[in-house]
Structure formats: structure tokens, C-alpha cells
Amino acid sequence: MVQEQKTLLAAADKLKEYKIKNTPQRQVILSYLMTSHDHPSIEMIFNYVRGNGFSVSLATVYNTLQLLIDNNLIIEIAADSGGHMRYDYFEVPHYHVICVNCNKIVDVFDDKYKKNEEHARLETGFQVFNSQYEVYGLCPECQKKLSEEA
Amino acid sequence: MVQEQKTLLAAADKLKEYKIKNTPQRQVILSYLMTSHDHPSIEMIFNYVRGNGFSVSLATVYNTLQLLIDNNLIIEIAADSGGHMRYDYFEVPHYHVICVNCNKIVDVFDDKYKKNEEHARLETGFQVFNSQYEVYGLCPECQKKLSEEA
DNA sequence: TACTATTCGAGAATGATTATCAATTGCGGT
DNA sequence: ACCGCAATTGATAATCATTCTCGAATAGTA
């Protein structure tokens, strides 16, 4: 069985696990998010689905992503200063380091920041579902580029 | 001297400190963010400025906020599921606990989460400017409301 | 006070997101 | 395996937050 089919099945399993009705569009979108590590934008997801021979509309991409967010399967990242949201599968907790110059997003797989969730619960009385941490700065490439310009 | 004038002067000082040209609009917007703890939206800021007898346009509010963000004086929070950004003065590090039901934002003044910035720097080589942490959950009021409905 | 670069502001333009609704489809029950 | 129906899809229109434009007004400086 080829890799593509495997990840489609893995996505189907995940949908069943979360009691989300399975459709081809949802399967492809989720499998893309589960395997890609490029924090895609809406547009990238839309193109990916069509590029793989499935029909899809923008409305469906938006609806599906909202559904996955509501189920805490993915998170939304406000990285792009151009107002483009980016999406990321979030089974394994990690945080994002974002370049304010080129908008690159780097994953750091360390979940220490999650420890604050318990503190937040005690402090506020909230029932906590999730949390996310973002670091903003200049990536090594942009540091070099900008120092050369100066 | 009345409180309002004091905070306007404080805002003017802050602008000078950051070498940002002082204008009435910027002074009022910054002073509002410095003193209010309600994480206002664009619309709230716009109404506040006009309501205090200053002329302002939406474009100016957007421009000013972007300027303050670029100077790390304030941060942008993607709290409102309706796509409304919220803004917060960020001199004292703290994180936000956000209710996914009513969009309420609660401040928690604990900067432990900031410790991860050093880790991010070592891990990625980024030059780190800032970081923010958000916790998502249900506030006590919405917990009660939703359990009564069920 | 005069100069100049910067900022302001009203409205237009843009573009991402949401709404609409008829046609289609997944899926539990028979 | 088939039915029936609730849920989903998708093309398009509608909405609305944000950005752009550019002439007028203004802040800071000498």
C-alpha cells in the first residue's frame, strides 16, 4: 500500500475516533495536516486537495478547518502579518517560533509551556481545553540579511 | 491634575521614549491601552477616541496599532472567534485565558512562560523579541450556563 | 516663524471569510 | 444491500474587516 493511502486511512480513523462524519474532503484535508509540517494556509490546503484529484470549494475548506479546530485536532496560528491564518495538526504538543520578517514558522517539540495550563485553571477557575505558545523574533537567515543591508 | 491628563502625559512620555512622533490620536490610543484592562477591539478603540472628543479615522487606528505592535508596546490577541483582533498593552508580561464560548479574556500576571524564550533561542538560533501564551477553555460562568442547559 | 517629512482622514478598493441553498452524499437502521 | 434523512458539499453572492490613496493638516526642528 502506498504512503498516500495509509495517511488517508489514518485520517479516516481519526475522524471516526472523534465522531466526525467522514467525507473525502475531510479525509484529504486532515491527512495533509497530519503529515505535512509546513503549517499551510487556507489557499495551500485548497490547492493541495484539488491537486490530488478531489473536488473541493473554499467554503468546505473553511468549514472543515473550523470543525477540526473545535475538536482540538488542529490549531490556528496568526503568523502571517498579511492576515493569513495558518493551520497545524496538534496531536503532539509543541510551540511555534515565528520570524517577524519572513513569516517562517519553526516547530519546537517541547511541552514544558503546557505546565502553565494547571496554573491557569487554579488561578481563573476555567475548564482548560488547550493552550498555545508563540515566540516572535528574527530567524538566522533574516538576521544575516538585515545586518548586511545596514 | 485629573487622572485623564496624567495618563495622556504618561502615553506621551512613552511615545517619546520609543522615538515615535507624538500626535493627539496616538496619545489617546496608547493611553487607553495603558489604562484599560478590557483588551479592546479596533471598534472599541475607535469609539473611545471619538467619544473623548478627538477626531480619528479607522485607518489611523489601524496604523497606530501596527506601529505600537512593531515597537513591542502592545500585542494583538486572536481571541474573538468572529475574527476580531483584540489589543493589549504589554509592558508587564502576562498571559491570557480565553473563554471559547463568550470570548472573555482574563489576564494572569505570571511570567513563568517567558522562560521558554531562552530555550527557543538556543533551539532555533532566532533573535527573540517577544512571546505570548494563550490558554483556551470555558470560564466558570459558561461552565454553569452550559451544564444547566444539558 | 518657516520648512519638510510625517501623519491624518474620508472614502474607495481589496480580499478574506461567511452565508445561501439546491444538489449530493454518508451512514445508521431495517 | 437498500432506504431515508440529516449532514455535507459547492458555486456564487454577500459581508465586512483591513488596506490603499492622496490631498490636507500637523509635529518637530532650526
TrEMBL record, chains A, B:
<dbReference type="GO" id="GO:0003700">
    <property type="term" value="F:DNA-binding transcription factor activity"/>
</dbReference>
<keyword id="KW-0678">Repressor</keyword>
<feature type="binding site">
    <location>
        <position position="142"/>
    </location>
    <ligand>
        <name>Zn(2+)</name>
    </ligand>
</feature>
<comment type="similarity">
    <text>Belongs to the Fur family.</text>
</comment>
<keyword id="KW-0804">Transcription</keyword>
<dbReference type="InterPro" id="IPR036390">
    <property type="entry name" value="WH_DNA-bd_sf"/>
</dbReference>
<keyword id="KW-0805">Transcription regulation</keyword>
<keyword id="KW-0862">Zinc</keyword>
<keyword id="KW-0238">DNA-binding</keyword>
<dbReference type="InterPro" id="IPR002481">
    <property type="entry name" value="FUR"/>
</dbReference>
<dbReference type="Pfam" id="PF01475">
    <property type="entry name" value="FUR"/>
</dbReference>
<keyword id="KW-0479">Metal-binding</keyword>
<dbReference type="GO" id="GO:1900376">
    <property type="term" value="P:regulation of secondary metabolite biosynthetic process"/>
</dbReference>
<dbReference type="InterPro" id="IPR036388">
    <property type="entry name" value="WH-like_DNA-bd_sf"/>
</dbReference>
<feature type="binding site">
    <location>
        <position position="102"/>
    </location>
    <ligand>
        <name>Zn(2+)</name>
    </ligand>
</feature>
<dbReference type="GO" id="GO:0008270">
    <property type="term" value="F:zinc ion binding"/>
</dbReference>
<dbReference type="InterPro" id="IPR043135">
    <property type="entry name" value="Fur_C"/>
</dbReference>
<feature type="binding site">
    <location>
        <position position="99"/>
    </location>
    <ligand>
        <name>Zn(2+)</name>
    </ligand>
</feature>
<dbReference type="GO" id="GO:0045892">
    <property type="term" value="P:negative regulation of DNA-templated transcription"/>
</dbReference>
<protein>
    <submittedName>
        <fullName>Ferric uptake regulation protein</fullName>
    </submittedName>
</protein>
<dbReference type="GO" id="GO:0000976">
    <property type="term" value="F:transcription cis-regulatory region binding"/>
</dbReference>
<feature type="binding site">
    <location>
        <position position="139"/>
    </location>
    <ligand>
        <name>Zn(2+)</name>
    </ligand>
</feature>
